[in-house]
Amino acid sequence: RDTKSDASPVTVADRAAEMAMRKLIEQTFPDHGVFGEEAGYSGAPDASYVWILDPIDGTKSFITGKPLFVTLIALTCEGKPCIGVIDQPVIGERWVGASGHPTTCNGEQVRCDDVEVKLSDAYVFATTPKMFDGSPETRRRFDAMSSACREVLYGCDGFAYGLVASGHADAVCEADLGVYDAAALVPVLEGAGGVITDWQGESLRFDPSILVNPETSGDKLTVLATRNGALHKEALLALE
């Protein structure tokens, strides 16, 4: 395994998996763009449809044998995620979301908005406490969220968003995410009745003009995903 410029690990499996996915997409949809964590953007810069790939989200989990890493696949149309897949190959769970359709896990419809939970009773996931160290303001806002919820649980990577979609977890609050970490999550959460935005409550968009430009494609995102709108509003207030 190697180390990226930001000190995060990357494995032979990361690169090989992305190459295999890229090859399949480019052969099947030659007019689509492709953006991946490992190789950046390829295809027409003005492509209406762009695939966003993270072959192994949770590389540290992968290299240490913890079965919480996932493969994230998204298809965006004019910058809006319209299809999302969260796949955990070891446990054998796959969430699929598509605009206008209910989210499924292994072919069975899932919902997460059928239980009312106050923030003070909510279990909130995040990958690592270190992801909030980018600025004092980010740390302050997350600490406020942490104090307001029942408990923060760490270490689930992208798998946590599937748990929210299935109604097992209440929320995920994260910072320092790449576009490849976030795009697939949107259709999965929304199709299950959940709400997912940035910390300002704005919809997550992935415009091709951002992905094509190396100076902007690496911009980091904040993400707040919750099981329903009421909890989302309460969590946004805690993050102010």
Please tell me about this protein's structure.
By secondary structure, the chain is an alpha+beta fold. It folds into two domains: 2-109, 2-Layer Sandwich (Fructose-1,6-Bisphosphatase, Chain A, domain 1); 119-239, D-Maltodextrin-Binding Protein, domain 2. The protein is 30% helix and 31% strand. It is built from nine helices and 15 strands. It has helices at residues 12-28, 59-63, 136-148, 159-165, 179-182, 185-191, 208-212, 214-217, 229-239, and strands spanning 2-3, 9-10, 33-36, 40-42, 49-57, 70-77, 80-88, 93-98, 101-105, 108-109, 123-126, 151-154, 171-177, 195-197, 221-226. The strands form three sheets. An eight-stranded mixed β-sheet has the order 4-3-5-6-7-8-9-10. A five-stranded mixed β-sheet has the order 12-11-13-15-14, sandwiched between helices. α4 runs parallel beside α6 (185-191). The N and C termini lie far apart (39 Å). The model has no long low-confidence stretch (mean pLDDT 94). One of its GO terms (molecular function) is metal ion binding. Belongs to the inositol monophosphatase superfamily. Its cofactor is Mg(2+). InterPro entries: Inositol_monoP_metal-BS, Inositol_monoP_superfamily, Inositol_monophosphatase-like. This is Histidinol-phosphatase.
Break the fold down into its secondary structure elements and pairings.
Layout: E1 2-3, E2 9-10, H1 12-28, E3 33-36, E4 40-42, E5 49-57, H2 59-63, E6 70-77, E7 80-88, E8 93-98, E9 101-105, E10 108-109, E11 123-126, H3 136-148, E12 151-154, H4 159-165, E13 171-177, H5 179-182, H6 185-191, E14 195-197, H7 208-212, H8 214-217, E15 221-226, H9 229-239
Parallel strand pairs: 3-5, 11-12, 11-13
Antiparallel strand pairs: 1-2, 3-4, 5-6, 6-7, 7-8, 8-9, 9-10, 13-15, 14-15
Helix pairs in contact: 4-6
Organism: Pycnococcus provasolii
Keywords: Hydrolase, Magnesium, Metal-binding
Cofactor: Mg(2+)
